Structures are given as C-alpha cells and as structure tokens.
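Subject: Interface between my chains keeps coming out wrong

I've been trying for a while to get a sensible model of this assembly. When I model each chain on its own everything looks fine, but I need the whole thing in one frame so I can look at the contacts. Pasting all components below, labels as-is. Any help appreciated, I'm running out of ideas.
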Amino acid sequence: MSEEKLPTRKENFAEWYNQLVLRADLADYAPVRGCMVVKPYGWALWENIQQALDHRFKATGHVNAAFPLLIPQSFLEKEKEHVEGFSPELAVVTIGGGEVLEEPLIVRPTSETIIGYMYSKWIKSYRDLPVLINQWGNVVRWEMRTKLFLRTLEFYWQEGHTAHATAEEAQEETLRMLNIYADFAINDASVPVVAGRKSSAEKFAGAASSYTIEAMMGDTRALQSGTSHNLGQNFAKAFNIQYLDQNNELQYAWTTSWGMSTRFIGAIIMTHGDDQGLVLPPRLAPIQAVIVPIYKTEAEKASVMEAVERVKAQLINFRIKVDEREEVTPGFKFNDWELRGVPLRIEVGPKDVEKGTVAFARRDIPGREGKSFVPQTQLEAQVAEMLQTIQASLHERARNFRMENTHNPADYAALQEVVQAGWAFSWWCGSPECETKVKDETKATTRCMPLEQPGGEGPCIVCGKPSTEKVIFARAY
RNA sequence: CGGGGUGUAGCGCAGUUCGGCAGCGCACCGCGUUUGGGACGCGGGGGUCGGCGGUUCGAGUCCGCCCGCCCCGACCA
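Reply #2:
Try treating it as a single job with all components included. I did that and got this:
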C-alpha cells in the first residue's frame, strides 16, 4: 500500500473511486487501453451477484445457454436503429487464419442479432413459445472514455433473450425481469433503485421500449444499473422469427432482452463506499466476517488461536476468513479489511479469552460506536443477526441519501440548480426538444419515468405544457 | 476525435533551470524487537530515465520526430 489514506469522497469522488478499486483488489488495468482485469476478490463478488441473479432467472423458468462471440457483420445491419446505435463502438475482425475474411466478423456488443437468427431457426409453432434463454458472457464496445467496472471496452454481463406469442406476454416478461433486477438490487445489494421507463432518446437501439433501474451514487449522480427491453417485433421482423398460431396463421414473435453487467459492481462501490474504503452488503460480500486474532506472547497466541478455532467452527455457514498474517499488526489488519469492505470484523484477543467474549466491529459504523462485545456462545445466531442488521441499515442509509437529494423543483431555473447536485423529479411533456434543452444546458439527462407515478397532471418543467407523467432528470454515469 | 497535462525502480516523486557517479519515500527480501486502530531498527535486491535519431569528450538533462498514459469535452451498460 503506497499511501495509507484514500482521498475523501468529498474532495475527489472520481479519484476516491479509482484508488479504491485498485487498492481493494477488485480489478486492475490491463495492457490494452480501456480493458480491465477482474481480480479474484472482484470476481468473487461478481460470482455472488451471478448466483443471486441466476437463482431468480431459473425460478422464473429461464435456462442458460451460450452463443458465439463473433457475429457476421451483415447481422448487425438487419435492424436499422440497432446498427445505427452500435456502429460507432464495434470491434471488427477482418483477418482470420492469415486471410482477409470475405465477410468481416463483429465482436458482439450484445447478442440480439445472432440470437434472433437462431430463434428464427428454432421457432416454428406457438408450441415452441415462449423461449426463455439467458447467457452469461462478455461483450465488447469500443468506448472512448473508460473507467473500471463502469465503462470498459470489454465487460461481463448476462443477457436474457426471450420470444413470446403475444405483445402482452412480451411486455409482462419485460417488467418481470425489471422487477427481478430491482428485487436483487434492493434485497441482495442493499442498493435502492427506481424502476422506470426510458425516454425514446435514452432507450436501447432497436427496442420498442426500454426499462431501467436507476440508482443514486454517493456523489448524487445516477447510474443505470440494469435494463430490460421490450423489443416488440423489431428483431422478429429483421430476423424472420415467425410461428404458426392456433389458427394456422403465420405470426411474428414478440421478443425481449434484459441485462445486468459488472457495472453493477461500480454501483455497489459508489452507493455504500465511505472514506475508509469499500463497504459490501453482507449477502454479496466474498468474505462476510473476518476474524482477527490478537496476541503478544507465544502463550497468548496458543490460547487465542484455540478460541479462534472454536469461533470459526461455529460459523461454517458463513463466508469467513481468519487473518493469520504474522507480519502485520492487528491495527493494520483492521484498516486493511475495512478498505476491502468486509461487513463484520471479529476480534479475538487475550482479554476475550479471559472473559469468554469476542469483539464485533461493524463495517457500516466505523470507530468505537460500531464495536460491541459478545459472548463466544451462540455466535452463529449473533453473526446472522448482525449481518442482517448491516444489510438493512445499508439499504436504509442509501435510501435516505437518495430521498434527501431528490428534489421537486418549482420551475426550470430551480431544475437547473438542483441537477448539479441531485436528482430532479419533474413533470415532463415527453418532447425530445425539452429533453435536449435540459441536457444541453445542464448536462442532466432523463433517467426514467418511474413506474410509480403520483398520478394527475402538471406543467412540463421546461415548456409548461400540461403533462401526465413525471420524469427523473439527473447527471448520469 | 478536439483541448490540456504527463512519461525517471512495482507505486508516488526529486533531479532537467545551468550537460559531469541515477536518487528519495512507500512497497519488496533477510534478521531482530513489536502486536486491542495503519510498529520500529539494521542490512539488502531492484533502472533500456517512454522510443528512435541528432548535438557533445560526455545527455535523464539540449534539439527533432514518434509513441504511451491521464484529465476535460461529444457517445454509451
């Protein structure tokens, strides 16, 4: 560790983030500009995210499969809006096996096209529907400005692709998956999110409508943390996904796609992290509790380690790490594990051996207030309860922060002001002109029209025309 | 791609003004003392000074060209 302290979030949020990712051992820069290496600790976090999502996907009838990385260039061109949206950021393979390829291959930026092609082969009858497939994989988008986890040339994600017989079913699926993302974010990651619909300017290239979960980061900027798209019949028509219905009539299928990426790790970092470093939600933390033995003499070490073994034995149902390093002091270890975001630290020292206790230190409450002494018995229940408490308090704190920084500006001048350090929740007439004006003058974009609306109507915050829907304006990552 | 900055040990930097043995802090290795909030002492290893070319007895330092990276802008999960 070259410097001991991180920059504070207040003095430099961007730098705080960069250093935290590196020093918490989540990821490192790869030799290719814009690419990252996800290190074992970061990947363990991702694996826990994967597991939490995958359970939910399976529970709603989805199955996993794998589609290829390389896509014929012509596929991208079949859906007009899709190709326009993605062309600027494609990586193209033009040479293979030393020969210039007859048709260049695209490194997938997303897989709607190749999956659409396959679905057209697989789907013949209404009996084949719905098709509910997900894949875990990586994609490449040639981004200009990159940032670890938030925006890299290559990133890891899951993309679900489904096909349905009716528009209604497709819409249901789109919202079902949006809700799964929201449920995961709130309950497993303690990241409060707003579920809503994207404006047409912000929607996925080729979608009929896009939905998002938006989270507020510690600097009040918004982060799109997961998306679900109703693709209508756009891709079905482009790829000829047709089936015979009960009346023996040929119909185009209705498709959806939905994804959540390693970007969500960025959401966790920027939602919960503090000036000491990372703060991980217990349900996703690779290490839920770290045990730090404390001793001076060999005799103390023997009795402490014996107590540590007893403590550890009670906690086999948790992800536990015993920090047995001899070359660093306990004080160093405290700071080290705080930097890495471990939710609970359990200290075992000579005084604990004597008194039959251990010391708990909660990561979400730094310093003395977060410490408590508990008996060495019934530790499983006590740890479970403490982790649950931390899980809930992280969510509550983040939710309060979002509410404190979400404003209801009275007029356009007030909107310009509030979006510099918060979200604005305002009536909007839905016109691209008003949306663009806000973007040009404040750098804030429409994040979503939340599914939960107050109802009624009000004047558009920009042009004053009567409107029936409220939207979130915010500066976003 | 436009604007700005920067390249010297793994990281952070000094040395460049005015050419003359390539250094400091952290990290790393060894030994010893330490250990309930980022320990200390002693000893050690590690360098195409971003690259190529030029000027010079001599270039990290001066000149030219090239390259990388970072920050700020337009696009995105």
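Reply #3:
Confirming on my end. The first strand of chain A starts at residue 27 and ends at 29.
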